Amino acid sequence: MDCIDLAADPAVVRVAQEGIGVALSLAHSPSYQVERFEHLSQAPWLMVSLNDGEDPHFRKAQFDPQKCPPDCPRPCALVCPVSAIANDSEDVALTGVWAEKCYGCGRCLPICPQGIITTYSHQATVTSLLPWLESGQIAALEIHTQVGHGEQFQQLWRNLQPVLPQLQAIAISCPYHSQVVEYLQTIAVGLGQLTIPLIWQTDGRPMSGDIGRGTTHLCLHYADLVLQSGLPGFVQLAGGTNGHTITKLRGQNSPPARSREKRIINGVAFGGGARTLIAPVLQTAAARQQDPLAPIHLEDHPDLLQQAITLAQSLVQPWKTRVTIAG
Ligand code: SF4
Ligand code: SF4
Questions:
Q1: I need a surface site. Which of 1, 6, 173, 217 has the fewest CB within 10 A?
Q2: Does residue 282 form part of some domain?
Q3: C-beta of residue 103 within 8 angstroms of C-beta of residue 80
C-alpha cells in the first residue's frame, strides 16, 4: 500500500507508526521467515481524516446495557462486523459498545428491537493536527464532506490554509448523491490553485465493502461520473470497494473496460472489505491472549502474520500491477 488513512486520534496515529516500524524492521531482518516483505522498501504515507460536519465516518454507537432485556438474543453483536459489541451477557452489561473498536458503520442501529442504540459524533480540528503536521508525521489530509456542506467545507478549507505547505496531497471524500458532481465542481472552484496532488475519493456507499460484491457498483459508477465531469485531480475508488471491484472494473476484459481502467483509476481505498478479510486472523490472535482486548502484536505469531500478509496481498496485488497510484 502507498497510504494509510487514519482517524485524527493520537492513539491511532501512534499505533500506525508503531506497526509501520515493526513491518520495516521485519523487512530488513534476514532472520525473519515471512515471505514477500522485500516489496516493503519505504514507509507508506499517513493520511489523517477531517470532517466538515456530521459524517458517519466520525461517529460511534452507544447504548446503556442496563436497558437490555436479559433474554435479548443480541442481534446487535451478531451484526457488528468488528465485534465492538460483546456477545456475552457479562461483557455487554459492563461495556455496551467498545468505542475503540466501533467505526460507526451504523448496522447495529436499526436491528435493536428496543431501539436503544444511538450514535454520538466527534469532529477533528485542524489545531489538533498541527503537532503531527509540523513534525512531518502526516503526509496527507482527507476531508470528508457531503452534498449540502458547502459553507462548512469552505470554512474548513480556510482553516487549512496555514498547514497546506506541510502536505504532500489532499483527498476529498464525499458520499454518492444525485447532485454530487455539481457539488464537487463547486468545491473545486473554491480550492483555488493547488500545488499538491488532489484526490477525489468516490465514496459510493460508505463503509460497505464487506457487505457483498454488489456494493462496488456504485463507487465505479460514481468514478465514471467524476471522470466525465472533467474535474481536475486524481480519482480513487472508495465506499464499497472489495475483492470484486477490480473484476467488475475489467468487465469482460473488453477494450473499453481496459481503457477506462487505465484512464481514471489512480487508486483504490479499502476499508470494510479489508477489515473483514483480516478479521479472522485478528480474532485467532486475540483468542490466543488471556485478555482479548489487549493489543495484538501479529509479529509475535509468525503463522498468523504470514496469513494476514497473504490475504492483504490478495486484495492489493491485482491493483499494484494495474494502476498508477496518485502521488
Ligand atoms: S456502529 Fe457498526 S462498528 Fe459500531 S457497534 Fe454498531 S455495528 Fe459495530
Ligand atoms: S439488540 Fe438492543 S436490547 Fe438487545 S443487546 Fe443489543 S442493544 Fe441491548
A1: 217
A2: no
A3: no
68 plus 176 within the same structural domain: no
Residue among 85, 112, 210, 276 whose CB has most ligand 1 atoms within 8 A, to mutate: 85
Are residues 73 and 175 located together in one domain of the fold? no
| Among protein residues, the one whose CA lies closest to atom 6 of ligand 1 | 108
- The Cα-based distances of 262 to 213, 237, 294, 319 in angstroms read 22, 13, 43, 11
The DSSP code for 324 is: P
Residues 64, 176: one domain?
no
Do 25 and 136 fall within a single domain? Answer: yes
User: What are 261-309's pLDDT values in tens digits?
Assistant: 455 688 899 988 888 889 899 889 988 888 766 778 898 998 999 999 8
**What torsion do the CA atoms of 46, 162, 267, 183 make, to the nearest 10 degrees?**
140
Phi, psi of 201 (to 5 degrees): -95, 115
Protein residue with its CA nearest to atom 5 in ligand 2: 74
Q: Hey, is 208 helix, strand or coil?
A: coil
pLDDT in tens, 239-257: 888 878 887 877 644 444 4
On whether residue 295 sits in a domain, the answer given is no
Domain that holds residue 89: 59-122
Ligand 1 atom closest to 97 (CA): 5
194 CB less than 6 Å from ligand 2? no
